[in-house]
Amino acid sequence: MKKILIISAATAAMFGASIAQADMTAGLLDNWEDRSYAQAKLGFVDLGTSDDGMALTATAGLEAPSIHESLSFEVDVMKTLTDGESTYPSAFGSTKVEASAFGVGAYAVSTYKELPIEGLEPYFRLGLAYTSVDVSASNNLVSASGEASEFGIAYGAGLKYDLGAHVDALENVGVLVDFTSTEVDSMSLGVDYRF
Length: 195
Fold this sequence. Notes:
The chain has 195 residues and is mainly beta. It folds into 2 domains: 1-30; 32-194, Porin, CATH 2.40.160.20. 14% of the residues lie in helices and 58% in strands. It has an 8-stranded antiparallel beta barrel. A hairpin with a 3-residue loop joins strand 8 (173-181) and strand 9. Residues 1-22 have low confidence and may be disordered.
């Protein structure tokens, strides 16, 4: 009898957990169009060169209030628009080093929405990212190039300001400043649009 009660309790617990999981997944997908957003960010990327590269980052996100009211999930793609550069003098003329980067990341984002300034929200991102860096070096005699890629932990933090909090015509638009660290660090300014 004791074994039957234990098996019944375990079965009920597993069944209840699977129903809760199904409800959470359904809640995450319900009205996803109303909770989605996109961002475009332009900024500087530290590629280890004396002059930083300029990069564009595109982000797609989904708020997840069914899990927690301040939780979102984001995916972003980053590509340098201009290379980072360094020049080193040598006996054979100056050597120029150029570096560019490409990255893809997936993040969980926690936003704090209780600041006394209406529309201002700090956030923190934690996730995984793939980053690829291409480097080339050349002088009057020789040239060389190489590529390194890495998959690892990524994190970031920033501030968003909802322009719609004060201007009705911009109710779905915000601006943001963002710092993200993958295998390269980037600092950018951007625009946030809520669908």
